Structures are given as structure tokens and as C-alpha cells.
Amino acid sequence: xxxxxxxxxxxxxxxxxxxxxxxxxxxxxxxxxxxxxxxxxxxxxxxxxxxxxxxxxxxxxxxxxxxxxxxxxxxxxxxxx
Length: 81
Known about the structure:
Layout: H1 10-22, H2 29-39, H3 46-60, H4 74-80
Helix pairs in contact: 1-2, 1-3, 2-3
């Protein structure tokens, strides 16, 4: 998903605001989504739930940093054991 799913109705705006208010460093996707679901003042429809999953995925996705690679020479392997 390249761009943020934009809320298109009151339920989606409420969901987005609830999720944004619960974001914290190192938060777990599952716990945030569960907290949002139980905090909603309305019964969520299938479309509401799908929006929550898409929005949470976008908001909680972290860019993957490329780790530097270290080439190991064959001689290094032989010396290490």
C-alpha cells in the first residue's frame, strides 16, 4: 500500500483518530487493532474493519533498514573454526 487510506465517512474518521491516539514506539499491530475495536462507540461493519486493518497496516508499517553486509572471505571461515 503506497498511500494512506483516507477516511471517507464518520466511522472511518473515528477509527483513524482512535488508532492515531494509541500509537506508541514499538507498539504491536495486534494490540493496537484490538484496543481500537473495543473502544469504538458503534458496531463495526465489515467495511469499517477493513478500513481499520488497512489504516493500521499503513500507520504501523516501518521502513526496513538495509543492514550492511559483510563479505566473509574463505580464509576467514577456515580460521574461525
